[in-house]
Write a structure and sequence with these properties.
This protein has one domain. It is globular and about 40 Å long. Strands 4-3-2-1-6-7-8-5 form an eight-stranded antiparallel sheet, sandwiched between helices. It has about 210 residues and is an alpha+beta fold. The chain contains six helices and eight strands; from the N terminus they run H-E-E-E-H-H-E-H-H-E-E-E-E-H. About 30% of the residues lie in helices and about 25% in strands.
């Protein structure tokens, strides 16, 4: 039996409501969809004034951890900036273990919605090109702000620099990288003593 006009209209209305409901659904990932243990990284190192080092990272739960033994990216910076075939990739287990072994103190916790919003920018930052590194100072050390991005082809995570300051300076030119860099700098000002753009004793040029 053919549906009556009234039944057909009701069916159309139900379908339309369902479609509009789906269109309004959030595309932000749930915590379970943030599958990597380490998202963002900040580190500083200087050998000119006696060895100074410090580091922080943000995990998949939005926790900001201070590192007791900073995991410096400096040895890999050249390959990262040049997109070298020698760029290192890390398994999920290696990444999680290296940071877990080095973490020290819980500094702060980031709102889950804010974290998911910034997590979505990592893929765009990973596609960014870099400015040409420029020698900007002497004995200022090196500050690196970065994120970790999954590479499907390599089936591993690689380090993505958002900005590097100090003796040498370079920036990731992607818009998403610029946004992430500004956000991480704001976290540093809010939560991380000594990494707020102020002069630091023993290293007059150290800023973020």
């Amino acid at each position: 039996m053919k549906p009556t006009h009234g039944l057909l209209c009701r069916a159309v209305r139900v379908s339309l409501i369902a479609c509009l409901g789906c269109a309004g659904c959030s595309t932000a990932p749930s915590p379970a969809e943030i599958s990597q243990a380490v998202l963002f990284h900040i580190s500083y190192e200087n050998y000119a004034w006696g060895h100074q080092s410090s580091g922080w990272y943000v995990d998949d739960q939005g926790r900001v951890w201070r590192l007791s033994a900073a995991l410096h990216w400096w040895p890999e910076v050249r390959n990262i900036l040049q997109g070298s075939e020698d760029t290192l990739y890390y398994s999920a287990g290696e990444l999680e273990q290296s940071y877990a072994d080095a973490r020290d103190t819980l500094v702060a916790a980031i709102d889950a919605d804010e974290l998911r919003e910034k997590y979505l920018l990592i893929a765009g930052a990973a596609r960014g090109n870099y400015s040409t590194p420029a020698n900007a100072a002497a004995d200022a050390g090196s500050s690196v702000i970065g994120c970790l991005a999954y590479d499907q082809e390599a089936d591993g995570y690689r380090k993505v620099i958002l900005s590097m300051t100090g003796d040498w300076q370079a920036v990731n030119l992607a818009n998403s990288a610029t946004e992430l860099d500004a956000w991480l700098r704001s976290l540093a000002r809010r939560f991380i003593p000594g990494l707020n753009g102020q002069h630091v004793e023993g290293s007059p040029n150290r800023t973020l």
